[in-house]
Amino acid sequence: MLRISASTVRDRWPLFAGALLTVTLGVALVQSSVLVLVSTGEPTIPPGASGRVAEQIREGYVGAATLLGMATPLAMFLAVFIVGSTFAFSVEQRREELALLRMLGGSRPQLIRLLLGEAFLLGLAGSALGILLGMPATWIQARLLIGIGLLPGDFSARWSNGMLLLSPAVGIGVAVLGVLSASYRAARVRPLDALRSAPRATRVMTLGRWLWGVSSLVLTVMLVVAGHGADLLGALLVAMAIPVFGSIALSALSPLAVPLVGRLLGTVLRTSALGELAQANLRDAVRRSASTAAPVIVLVGLLVGLTGALNSLARAASADLERSTAADLVVTSTGAAAARIPQIPGVALASPQSQVEMSVTAQHRVDHRSYRQTHHWGITAVDAAAYRRTHRLTLRSGSLDALHGRTVAIGPRLAAEGVRDGTVTARIGPHKLKLRIVARLPEVLENGSDNFLVPRDLMPTAMLADAPTETLVQLTPGTSPQAVADRIRAAGIGEVRTLGQWADARVETQQRGTMGIMAVLMGMSGLYAAIAVINAVVIAAAERRTEFAVARATGLSRSQVVRMAVVESAAVTLIGLLLGTLVAAAALASFYPGPGGVHVLSVPWTLLGLLIMASLAVTAVASALTALTATRPSPTALVAARE
Amino acid sequence: MRAPATAGPHAGVPVAPVQLSQVSRRYGAGETQVQALAEVSVTFPAGSWTAVMGPSGSGKSTLLHCAAGLDRVSAGRVLLAGQDITHATDAELTRLRRRTVGFVFQNFNLIGSLSAEQNVALPLRLAGARPSRRDVQTALADVGLADRGRHRPRELSGGQQQRVAIARAMVTRPSVLFADEPTGALDTGSARTVLRLLRRMVDAAGQTVVMVTHDPVAAASADAVVFLSDGRIADHLLRPSAAQVAERLTRLEG
Ligand SMILES: Nc1ncnc2c1ncn2[C@@H]1O[C@H](COP(=O)(O)OP(=O)(O)OP(=O)(O)O)[C@@H](O)[C@H]1O
Ligand SMILES: [Mg+2]
Question: Which residues does the UniProt record annotate as the domain ABC transporter (chain B) (predicted)?
């Protein structure tokens, strides 16, 4: 059996090269994500770093780990999905050969063993290549995380020997899983199929395909329903799950859409013989069409769905920030410069918020577990009265009026962290003092909110003067914000932005890491899907050599054959784009502005447009090139050739 | 209508390896339904060579497929090597294909990635045996291809490919060989070689051959000829000459 596998692999390498490539990329991807993820689990703090620096590094690591924790399962899903559809397609292409084995006395279990054996070999080879490719991939991924500022410049992912176990497990597992259902389907080919060299009208929508498709669809619909009326976090989770299940569902059911689109194409191109032929081919090769459409579906569903969800989340956070802040302008300056803002004509109220360098050690209690934690970041010195008038917040408890002297308020960021009532211990320079908790602020949507608010009168003046400060400014009624902004700038105080600009920029900075990961994910899934699409087109063209030759012998010119192939693959890509957009729409449904909540829908139109153009371009170019290659030999040579 | 048991040189062998009784095969349903076989009863005696002839679309291939267990019948019963295969499970049919039946078809059906030797050894390997190279080479030598064992199918001529296919069908020593237009794609010389090989299987090894053909000369090499028309057995001849066959065929088609 293995000998047959080996010589088949040698002889029909384009069929296997694609599968091998997808396994290799999948292994490299998963390995690098896991290596970086594991390395972020144990931050290396340079010796002698201050508590403040150490906390910042640690926070960065946690952020990177969270993002990778999101991206790694998605990478896994992509690998299984793409490898699975590539394998299924390549098995489908070998129907005749498998039927011949059956005719010669091969049993069903033997066929399954043959295909699983091949998958095992491919998985093994793909793992070996993937482990090698994973090394530069790890480096690139680490660089990217450093580039977006999540990890310190000297971060490097450490190699772990565990990868020698994990990567082959991933590679072989993905390959064998990918071929499993295809091999059971292939084992059901009838020996008689070996005799039908003409395109077979086998049923594409098998029972398994129906079950798989419909159950995934039901799950997707349930998720959409659950997402309707969920809070933002729920909506985000739903938006992450829907592209996965929706893509599976619509890929499985896509053969149903092929004839529909074929008919559409038929009415558009009714007059030309070419259009008629393309339509007929489309209908006849539903399985091939479905294989080309699947990666496009997952590409569009995943990228547009996730990007839309994250953008919507950012928009919601910034809208929330804008809504809860009562100010016309925001000035960024030093504490000393901020002190001059109230004197500027037209300023009714200035609320300075200074990031101060101090530490606060608090007692936490979460789920019967108590622990002490020292915070160095997100401690803001405020003027309680001005703060109250510039923030529309309903406190969870206490009152900001009492925020004077040795007191502290628990900021939005720690609202859910179970800080215990009573006092916290603060360190300001060499001094250590106890602060009484007087108020608790509510949670907010943005990530970068404060841990603690302390009264400005607690801080030494020199420290406040140096502290980076954002001042929320309310204007006297009737003054032009533009004029006041100009005056503040003229006074050389600092940077002035409108509330909207400030909120957007603030959220954007916080989202930069997420967007960076999204970019990585997008790039790699785009590449992955492109390979899968090209793969399907190349395999199909090899199979269609004779068909093309017959078409030419019937009187079609070479360029007509090529045009026919391009029209067909464009139609198939359109099906994929359509279904993918449907998946993305389902993923974003829970962000659709409805009653309650601040749900804001942000559709990444530009990305969608780019994807549409890129997919159409890739499939058109790939099918044109393969059709050109396939039609190079004279048609008679091919019509006559039989093996 | 029952065709009388055709008698061959080995007519004394008791169990008929292939027997069809009242076999019908319909394709499709409703308006587009095609009756490819209509209540056909026929026996192919052991150690004989029977040719099946008839106009295009008369159901010859269908008859062959049903008799070999490659296709299910719509009604009737099929006995193969003393076993009722009408409702046989896939595993039972697989076992039959390994031990009892062999196939040769018009379009050679070799696996392109395997050499001639590997193609010949394939059925034995699939059956779990470890064929010795000698066995395989003997089989190839029997069909006159001793020196082409390492070649791939695409490096062989059509006639040579067909002889590889016959060597592959012979190597398991099946009691029944089914051949669908085995000479259909060959020139006269290659066709004659193939027919000689089939004759040797019947005479030397006592194997049974059922062969579909359009060629009266090929049919004349057989022990008996069965004529099909519109899915029914229309006629039969024993030890016919090519001229007799041609004459009956013309009458059928006319
Ligand atoms: N899978 C199928 N579906 C529908 N009809 C079929 C199928 N296979 C065969 N037929 C029909 O059954 C009839 C008999 O076909 P069969 O292939 O047995 O003819 P044949 O005698 O072998 O013809 P030829 O000499 O041309 O090979 C034909 O009318 C054919 O159209
Ligand atoms: Mg036929």
Answer: 18-250
